Amino acid sequence: MNQRSFKEYVQGPVQIGMGMGILSLLARWVTGSTILSSPESMVKYGVFGGIGYALMGAFALFAFSFIGKRVRRDFPEGLTIGDYLKTKLNPLGYWTFVFILILTSLHILFIQGMAASTLFRFLFHSSLSIEMFLFICFCVLFAGFGGLKMIHHLAAFKVIIMFAAVILIPLYFFVKEGIQPVYDGIRLYHPYMLVINHYDIWSFLIAGMLVGFGQFFFDLTSWHRLFMIEIKKVPLTFSLTGLIWLIFPLSFTSLFIIVIFTGGFSDIQSILVGLANKITTPFFFILFVLCAFSAITSTFGAGLHSLVSFIVVNVIGPFRKYSNEQQKLRMAYLLSICIGVLTYFATILNSSSIVELLFYSGNIYSALLAPIVSIVFSKGKVSNIIPFSAVIGIIISFIFLPFASDFQSIWISGFVSFFIVMTHTIFKFTINRKVHHVKQQ
User: Fold this and answer.
1) What is the pLDDT of residue 251?
2) So what's the architecture of 6-353 in CATH?
3) C-alpha distances in angstroms, 382 versus 2, 79, 207, 393, 417?
C-alpha cells in the first residue's frame, strides 16, 4: 500500500513481459462467471453450449491481440483506455463512451459479487450480509488500496491454485467414475444435452459471440493490461492467454457433467450441492473452494482497480488539478470504498442468475463491437456518429425487447450499430473520393 506515485499505483514500477502479462490477464478473465456460467450454459443449452462458451472467450482474446497491436502501434504510451479514446474522439463522443465504460465496469463488479454470493450460499447456507461484507473488504484492501503491485503479487498464487483445480479435480473424477458410465448416464437422464441441431444453441452461440467480443474489446482491465505489456509482446501475450483460458471453462463443464450424469437437478445451486457430495476427499473440496474464491476475488480486484484508475485519470482529472501524487492516491482509496459499498448493497438485494446477468447487458456489449473496431482502425479522430451508433443500437434493441427474445434483442443492437458504422464509413469514403477526383481535375 506504500506506492511512491499514482502511476506506480496504476501500472506498477515497470512494464511487464509476456509471462506476467498472461498471468495478469488470466487473473482477470478466469472469473466467477467462468466457473458458474459455463456449467449453467451447459445446463440450459447442452454440452455444446458449454463448449461454445469456452470457444467464444478464447476467440475474443485472440482477436483482441490484433486490436492491441494496432493500438500500441498508434498510441504507445498511456495508462487507460480513456487516454486512447481522448485522442480518437471528439468531446461529446468521448464522454458518451466514458459513461458507458463506467456503467459496464460496475456491472462486471456486480456479476462477480453475485458469483461470490452463490459460492457463499453453497458453503454456509446462511445470511449473506456478513460473508459479502468480508469479501468486499478483502477486495478493497488488496486491490483498491494495494494497487497493481499487490494484485500482481497475488496473481501468480491464484493462477496456480486455479490450474491445480481444473486439472486435478476432473482427472480425479474421471479416473474414479470412468468415461463410459458418464456418457451413458448423460444419454439416459439428459439426452437433450448431446443435441447440437437445436435452435436455442445456435441463438446462444451467435448472441454469445457478439456479447463476448464486445465485452473483451471494451473492457477497462484488458486495455489497462494492454498498456502495461511490452509493445512487441502484445500480440503473442493475448493470443496465448486465449488458448490457455480455453482450458478453464471446458474443465468446469466436464466437472459438472460428472455431477449430473447420475440423475436430475433443479438449478446451478443443486449442482453445486451435488458436487460437494461427490467430492469426498477434503483436499479436492478445499482446492475447488480456493479456486472459485481466487477467480472471483482476482476478477473483482482487477476490475475495481482499473475502474478507480480510470475515474481518477479520465473522469475527475480533467476537472480537478491535483497538487501532488498523494492527493490522487487518497482519491483512489476513497473511490474504492464507495464502489465497494455500492456493489455490496446491489449484490445482497438481487436474486438473478449469472447467465441472466451476463445477457442482460448483452445489448450494450453487442452494440459496442462495431464502433470500437471502427475507432481503432480509423486514422485520426472519428465522427461523433461512431460512438452514437452504439447508443442508438442500445436504445432500439430495448424498444424491441418486449417483442423479441433476449438473443434477438442482442442481434438487433449489434446489427443497428454495425449498419450505422458501415453506412457512415461508405458515405465518408465516397465523399473523399469525389473530393480527391475534383482536386485532380
Assistant:
1) 82
2) Up-down Bundle (1.20)
3) 40, 21, 27, 18, 15
